[in-house]
What does this fold into?
Amino acid sequence: MSGQQEDAPGRRRPRAEGLLGGAAEPAAPRPQRVREPAPAAVRRAALVVAVEAVALAVLAGVLLVLTLTGNPDSVGRALAEVVYVGLGAALLTGAAVGLWRVSGWARGPVVALQLLLGVFGYTTAFQAGQPLIGVPVLALVAVELYLLATPEARLAFFDR
It folds into this structure.
């Protein structure tokens, strides 16, 4: 009976195929998902987040150099500060990529970090007496939150 079909009911299957199951049928090809380009406001927001990420990475490097060359009160605390700033830079970098791709998860962490940076900028500018550091941070935060609140940015994330 060499003319039998492989999937015919009378065909004898190997024991391993009976125990473990036969080979799977190839899946139907997925339709190509069309990615719409990010709106201009979202791309600008991604660039602002990337600038903030680069600034935090530079700050982490400066803090590391100051920790290694200086005489901190607590080396552990100083290194922890470097790690926290570095993690913030890494998170902002990932969020910038997510914003550029209009990924739904990216908007929340960006807004949360902007609020934290806003508190940092306000404290630095007005309570610590360093307006040359705090005011630019506040300006970046304001621009970022504005760009993410524009109607085109909200609609881009609403569809995802």
